[in-house]
């Protein structure tokens, strides 16, 4: 839970149970705000097509991010992006099961349930798997003639094995095939989890599209 609450790998003080609870409540509140706002869009603008609703949904997400920053600034409560993602999946799945499900066909029902289950599994996998962390060894530094590992990375012509290793500026981990640090998943994206990351992004787009299509019927 602390990994989800912190949403990052940067070394930091451990959160107290009270702080974790407030973080979870803030994340849950942002999810409720964003989901209710998105649900109101087709009711306030019934003549809009589905594609026209997507930019509005993006604005709602942006508003949720701004609200989260305001909470952190004025109330001192920090929401967690990974918890936001997790609660968003669970809430969408719950709303579908208890509200929307009876209006959908059996085939579509199986599809949506499978999508949500796969998203939860993929979310767990990307949180728990190794993105490609490269263990620092003093022998590498000696071979490259560098004082520290960062210098060895950025002079990788001396040491070809480090040519695709980069240090994350956020969590300070050395990652093979480093792409970026993803705040939404609370982990670095590297050589070992890049495909999973792309699959998750695709899954979220497909699941949200299916969910929106069913909820607007």
What can be said about this structure in brief?
The chain has 217 residues and is mainly alpha-helical. Helices cover 63% and strands 6% of the residues.
Instruction: Report low-confidence residues grouped into runs of 5 or more.
Output: 1-12, 155-160
Tally of distinct domains: 2
Helices and strands, in N-to-C order? HHHHHHHEEEEH
**Number of DSSP helices?**
8
Based on Cα principal axes, name the global outline.
globular
Distance between the termini: 36 Å
Q: Structural class from helices and strands?
A: mainly alpha
Whole-number mean pLDDT = 75
β-strand amount: 5-15%
The major β-sheet equals: 2 strands, antiparallel
- Order of the strands making up the biggest sheet: 1-2
Helix proportion of residues, in percent? 55-70%
Annotation, overall tally of beta strands? 4
CA radius of gyration: 21 Å
Index terms:
mainly alpha, disordered N terminus, 4 strands, 217 residues, single chain, two-stranded antiparallel sheet
Describe this structure in words.
With 217 residues, this protein is mainly alpha-helical. It folds into two domains: 2-130 and 195-215, no CATH class; 138-191, no CATH class. The chain contains eight helices and four strands. The strands form two sheets. A two-stranded antiparallel ribbon has the order 1-2. Strand 1 (165-167) and strand 2 (174-176) form a beta hairpin. It is globular and about 55 Å long. Belongs to the DHHC palmitoyltransferase family. Residues 163-214 form the Palmitoyltransferase DHHC domain. One of its GO terms (molecular function) is protein-cysteine S-palmitoyltransferase activity.
């Amino acid at each position: 839970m602390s990994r989800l609450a912190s949403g990052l790998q940067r070394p930091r003080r451990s959160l107290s149970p009270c702080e974790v609870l407030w973080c979870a409540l803030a994340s849950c509140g942002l999810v409720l705000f964003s989901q209710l706002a998105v649900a109101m869009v087709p009711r306030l603008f019934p003549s809009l097509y589905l594609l026209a609703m997507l930019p509005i949904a993006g604005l709602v997400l942006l508003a949720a991010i701004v609200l989260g920053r305001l909470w952190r600034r004025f109330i001192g409560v920090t929401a967690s992006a990974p918890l936001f993602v997790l609660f968003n999946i669970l809430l969408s799945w719950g709303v579908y099961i208890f509200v929307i499900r009876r209006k959908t066909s059996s085939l579509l029902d199986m599809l949506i349930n499978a999508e949500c289950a796969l998203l939860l599994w993929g979310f767990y996998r990307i949180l728990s798997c190794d993105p490609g962390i490269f263990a620092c060894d003093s022998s590498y530094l000696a071979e490259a003639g560098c004082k520290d590992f960062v210098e060895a990375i950025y002079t990788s012509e001396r040491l070809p094995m480090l040519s695709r290793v980069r240090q994350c500026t956020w969590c300070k981990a050395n990652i093979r095939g480093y792409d970026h640090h993803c705040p939404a998943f609370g982990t670095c994206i590297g050589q070992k989890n890049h495909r999973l990351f792309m699959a998750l992004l695709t899954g979220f787009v497909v699941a949200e599209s299916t969910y929106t299509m069913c909820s607007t019927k």
